[in-house]
Design goal:
The protein has 223 residues and is an alpha+beta fold. Helices cover 38% and strands 13% of the residues. The model has no long low-confidence stretch (mean pLDDT 92).
Length: 223
């Protein structure tokens, strides 16, 4: 078996990282489709390249989705399909040898064609996991949104819910939170960071569902 192109034992910030972001027709992976994609490649903590495009979802964009990102059916008419975008040589070069990442990666990763990555099953880095750990005492609705986290940590995000801007801001936020040094005595290797994130995600899932199960059940209205 050949080694994965991303070095598991390398110091995490020595590995190229590509942050991906999708704007979509809704929040149901497998049902909803991408209308915009943005990729931002970071090397040594610095943004070195970006690629993005509007995408034809081959379905109408619902009004609720349009109100979030402002992308209309007219905007995406004639734009590439998501598979066509990822088939471009420039996209393959940008992704080459890089660790994938996304803000709320469990959502965005489902919009990437499996063949576009060296190993689709490989874990992604997720700045949202860091936000939930670093800002665990933050309160208020929407406190974990990318725009709110960027505002707390001094990361510029002028055009929230547009893929290019969200991808770039999520990458900057990732490096800023890791540089704060609140979670590790020193920079971890990539494998340790990925393992920690997977454990944190599992604990957060368990805590949330435990809390949900303890809430009073609403009575079902009788007809």
């Amino acid at each position: 078996m050949s080694a994965h192109p991303v070095p598991y034992l390398a110091r995490w910030d020595s590995v190229p990282i590509v942050v991906l972001d999708f704007e979509t027709t809704g929040v149901r992976p497998g049902i909803d489709r991408a209308v915009e994609v943005g990729l931002a490649r970071f090397e040594g903590g610095k943004l070195v390249a970006q690629l993005g495009s509007l995408l034809d979802p081959q379905m109408p964009i619902p009004p609720d989705a349009n109100r979030v990102h402002g992308i209309s059916d007219a905007d995406v008419a004639g734009k590439p399909l998501v598979a066509d975008f990822f088939a471009r040589e420039a996209v393959a070069e940008l992704l080459g040898g890089a660790q994938p990442a996304a803000y709320n990666a469990s959502f965005d990763r489902w919009f990437v064609p499996p063949w576009a990555l060296a190993d689709w099953t490989w874990p992604w880095l997720d700045p949202l996991t860091l936000v939930r750990a670093v800002d665990r005492y933050a309160r208020g609705a929407g406190r974990h949104k990318l725009s709110a986290a960027c505002a707390r940590h001094g990361v510029t995000l002028a055009n929230a819910h547009r893929a290019d801007d969200d991808a770039r801001a999520a990458g900057e936020l990732l490096f800023k939170l890791m540089a704060a040094g609140d979670l590790w005595p020193g920079p971890p290797c990539l494998g340790d960071l990925l393992g920690w994130m997977r454990k944190q995600d599992a604990l957060q899932w368990s805590d949330f569902n435990g809390w949900l199960a303890r809430q009073p059940q609403r009575e079902t209205a009788t007809p």
